[in-house]
Amino acid sequence: MLFLLPSSSAAAISTYGQTYRNISLRSSLTAGSDNLPWTSPSGDFSFGFQQVGDAGYLLAIWFNKIPDRTIVWSANRNDLAQGGSRVQLTEDGELVLNDQSGRQIWIRPQLGGSGAAYAAMPDSGNFVLASQAGVNLWQSFDEPTDTLLPTQNLNSGAQLIASYLENKNYSEGRYKFILQADGNLILYTTHYPLTTSNFAYWSTGSSIGSGYQVIFNQSGYMYLVARNGTLLNPVFSNSVSIQDFYLRATLDYDGVLRQYVYPKTASSSGNRAMAWTTVSNSIPSNICLEITGQQGSGACGFNSYCRLGDDQRPSCKCPPGYTFFDPNDERKGCKKNFISQDCDHPSQEIDSFEIKEMPNTNWPFNDYEMFGSVDEDWCRQACLSDCYCAVAIFNTAGQCWMKRVPLSNGVIDPSVSGKALIKVRKGNSTAGSSAKKCDRPNLIITGSVLLGCSIFLIVLSLLGIYVFFSRWNRQKQKLIPQHHVMPAMNMQNFTYSELERSTGGFKEELGSGAFGTVYKGALANEDKPLIAVKKLDKMAGEGDKEFNTEVKVIGRTNHKNLVQLVGFCNEGQHRLLVYEYMSNGSLANFLFGDSRPNWNRRMQIAFDIARGLLYLHEECSFQIIHCDIKPQNILLDESLNARISDFGLAKLLKTDQTKTTTAIRGTKGYVAPEWFKNLPVTTKVDTYSFGILLLELVCCRKKFDIDKKECQIVLADWACDCLKEGKLDLLVEDDEEATEDMERVERFVMVAILCIQEDPSLSPGMKKVVQMLEGGVQVSVPPDLSSFISTI
User: Fold this and answer.
1) Does the model's pTM come out above 0.70?
2) Residues with Cβ < 8 Å from 656, sequence gap 6 or more?
3) Most exposed among 57, 97, 144, 733, judged by the fewest C-beta atoms under 10 Å?
């Protein structure tokens, strides 16, 4: 194993015992008083009372040097204490919380006295009760609430339960993260207000009985291990310096597990403008799409829908005709703001209702009827005439799904096909209203005359309106381009003129490649999102094949380390692809620019690329060989996360295929040897290209550089020589951060050389590459180097 697992709890206590500020027996704290909390030696953490608005006080542990006093643990989250409540370390070694009347709110240990000689608040954030000999008798790390801290492990059966609301209500909420007794690590929705498990929306998928403990080490790595210490599944694979940052992993109130950092320099200066920032992709990446349980409301409350924002955080919204039950708690769901259709006389009320469209929207598992082979107009009318129908979902397959309230699992996302047809009451019309009868003859006569005149005028008006709108609509059809969604995918079909306007006449060039040029643009939406438009060169045969391949391949992929395809244009001779815009450009510019990128950032980029390739090779619905992995085809988003782009050279394999034959593709220097031997190629050609790219990331130089010494011109050859001769420090001699991390340098170089073996059968697949990079499995010695190197 390459990971150094954290020490056991007992060993950690003996280490901490040297710096404890012991809290003696009979010591106490009172809620609402001026007495100081119990603080760790460095002042990083405090134990005491935190006020929660006007609701009461939490007995909690928090980051003491951060202005917002972020809470990481609490004792009484479901039973807040009031002013005057007191926590005391009794003579029997019990930690007891009583309210102002003497009622016991919380006690640890729960069965009799612990025999503790003192309590302590160490710099780890783990509050302990310890014996005179320093043996840990109880610790807060064993009873987490919603947060894990570095060196805090999650044992079998332990769980995190999200808070109900962020920074407002810390009581147990709607989600939990648990290491089950069967060894699987799972995120569940709960049967709120109970904490029993409901729907599993994320899982490591570990073999039954294999998972033993979740490790969260001091470098920020979180992973599931077996009882023998073997790494089973990584959860977070970030490298964070706890000397420079505070670090925590929290199951947030929205059900997403996130890892956060806060710079210690900002806390020491009292900078209130700083905030916690995420350092990895959240789990799951899009919770809106993950929760589709038969029971429960979904990621948001009933009759609402979930949308992932630009900040990658989910928000809950109400559909047309609905409003929040509680604007201060959006996850309570939505209610109708109109009177429902009268089921005794539904046909009489059809004209009182209308349909509001919501594209890319669905509420799964609320169907009571499905009709096939119908058109959208039929689906609309069917819902309008059915008093049970609240929403109809119409998709491109000609299916009409009828849904009743309460609606659950609501989601709006570009990946959702079809559209929602929401039935709402028109204007100010009310249900069951009828004109009052009047038996005065003169009023009847007057009303009849007025009614007759009104009808005549209305008919004339309607005819005029019809003629006007018919002409206007025909003109509009000429002016406004019609958008279509590619079948089985949710990609926009743009017209050429639209993309020409969006790019300002293809003015700003971002880059170019073998099959086309990429331009910067902005969509004409309200928020004007930036896009990258790839304009494919006019070429016969192969060009058209490349276009169709790229559209089909990227349209079916969805991964955090792949560039997302937004849409396309296939109009006459014009073939264009529209991607999400990557603000930090290509890895080539980032890596080979004027300044050397940070070592840890380079290694994180290596992880990102490896995971993206693993997805393409093994995890998406079609196995995909990219065929042209190189720095120019790796783009960086606003957070410098790496995204694999340009699938124009991809070779799509069916699920039962493992290899294929095709003409040589790729870029010189990154092309695997089997291409030149006219052999069937496999996903190993991407492994080879990744190996070259990994060496470039480690050494921060190009694969071929004629300005170097003769022995250093070809990077792969030089790296092999350095490894054989035990001189790996030469590869990173000008990189101070890398030279301080030579164990990882050696591991990454070994992995790279394994990837570039001439015989593809000797190189690893990307799954094993990821495991070796993360330290989950041992790095084997490359065959041609076994006589020179001892196994890592």
Assistant:
1) no
2) none
3) 733
CA–CA gap between residue 491 and residue 222 (Å, rounded): 35
Write b or e for each residue in 354-373: b if 16 or more Cβ atoms lie within 10 A of its Cβ, otherwise e: bbeebebbbbbebeeeeeee
- Predicted confidence (pLDDT) per residue in 710-735, tens digit: 888 889 999 999 998 889 999 998 88
pLDDT at 10 over 50: no
Provide the total of helices (H) and of strands (E) in the chain, helices listed first: 14, 46
Binding site for ATP: which residues?
A: 535
**Of 219, 286, 290, nearest in space to 249 by CA:** 219
Convert the pLDDT of each residue in 400-412 to its tens digit.
999 999 999 999 9
pLDDT per residue over 336-391, tens digit each?
Answer: 999 998 888 777 888 999 999 999 999 998 889 999 999 999 999 999 999 999 99
Quick one: pLDDT at residue 478? 37
Q: CA gyration radius for the chain? A: 32
In the chain, the N- to C-terminal Cα span, in Å, equals: 8
Distance CA 626, CA 613 (A): 8
Statement: residue 642 has pLDDT above 50? yes
For residues 780-791, give the mean pLDDT: 54
Interatomic CA distance for residues 147 and 589, integer angstroms: 38
With a CB cutoff of 8 Å and minimum separation 6, the contacts of 744 are 603
pLDDT for 668: 57
Cβ contacts of 481-490, under 8 Å, gap ≥ 24: 485/396, 485/417, 486/551, 486/555, 486/568, 487/396, 488/396, 488/417, 488/555, 489/555, 489/556, 490/360, 490/414, 490/415, 490/416, 490/417
Please give the Cα distance from 650 to 666 (Å, whole number).
10
The 8-class DSSP code of residue 616 comes to I
What distance in Å separates the CA atoms of residue 657 and residue 654, rounded to the nearest whole number?
5
Domains, in order of start, for the chain: 1-143 (2.90.10.10), 153-198+213-278 (2.90.10), 290-425 (no CATH), 485-580 (3.30.200.20), 587-785 (1.10.510.10)
Give catalytic status of residue 628 as yes or no. yes
Peptide bond into 193 cis (omega under 30): yes
The answer to whether the CB of 251 falls within 8 A of the CB of 241 is no
Indicate the annotated binding residues: 535
Q: Residue 367 and residue 681: Cα distance in Å, rounded?
A: 46
State the catalytic residue, choosing from 44, 628, 646, 735. Answer: 628
